[in-house]
Amino acid sequence: MRYAIANNKGGAGKTTVALCLADALAARGRRVLMVDMDPQANLTRRLGYAESDLSSMVTTSEVVRENRTGCAAEAVIGCRWSVPWAERIDLVPSRFDLENRVPEAGQLGAHLRLARGLDGVTDDYDVVFLDCPPSLGHLTQLSFAAADGVIAPVVAEYDHVAGATRVRDFLTASAQHLDRPSLALVGVIVNAQDRRRGLHTWHLGSLRDLFGDLVWTPPVPSRSVLAEAMDAAEPLRAQTGSVARDLVTIFDELADRLESTNAAA
């Protein structure tokens, strides 16, 4: 199954959630492919690749430009985390020039270029995550056209909730135009939850009113160890201490929910 990770608001933790889910799934033996569709390339860096590493590599920009069935196979590289389960995580990397694909949006059938490039390439993976930029523009639409479902990470604050709502409404109105008429939001993951803030508690309730059972539990609390792991390009599961272990348990539960969603699809 392919999942686009999307929110029309930056800072929701899309990349963090995608990486921690991949970490949890790979640790239980699943093969995971990460596709970086954000020109900021944060996903690529956090899997161990500096911008200087990418200068001679095939990236998502070339995959989309090539517009050839299965061409993403030429871009797949391994995760550089120094943990045994990293061998089960692969990456189609990004770099800043992915932005050059945006002007191609008006070309006939351009929204299908990523899906065409991934055709056949994802068959050997249990789960594929497409990490989207914080927009509903061409790069995100490329991801939607290649996805089986969409997961929206949110911080329990108004702008993030509104961003997830726009994703849901966009899919309802436009999925058919992306040749994915049944594509829909399948999960909302609350990230960086701070129980000390009444605002977060209130918006957690509003999320349940808006999205019902699509809100996956438990919420991910705001913890510095998670930000530190992402900053150091290390997996959460490799961190030490009780706080890290609690976060690992939370993402294991969210991975259970994702796998049950896979089974029901």
Topology diagram in text:
Blueprint lengths: L1 E4 L8 H14 L4 E5 L5 H5 L13 H7 L10 E2 L10 E4 L20 H6 L8 E5 L6 H8 L3 E6 L3 H17 L10 E6 L7 H14 L3 E2 L7 H8 L10 H23 L1
Parallel strand pairs: 1-5, 1-6, 2-4, 2-5, 6-7, 7-8
Antiparallel strand pairs: 3-4
Helix pairs in contact: 1-9
Helix content: 25-40%
CATH architecture: 3-Layer(aba) Sandwich
Radius of gyration: 17 Å
Beta-sheet strand percentage? 5-15%
Kindly, what is the distance between the CA atoms of the first and last residues, rounded to a whole number of angstroms?
9 Å
CATH class: Alpha Beta
Structural class: alpha/beta
Domain count: the total is: 1
Low-confidence stretches: none
Q: What composes the largest sheet?
A: 8 strands, mixed
Label the overall shape.
globular
Oligomer: single chain
Strand order of the largest sheet: 3-4-2-5-1-6-7-8
Average pLDDT score: 94
Number of strands: 8
Count of alpha and pi helical runs = 9
Q: N-to-C SSE series?
A: EHEHHEEHEHEHEHEHH
The CATH topology: Rossmann fold
CATH homologous group name: P-loop containing nucleotide triphosphate hydrolases
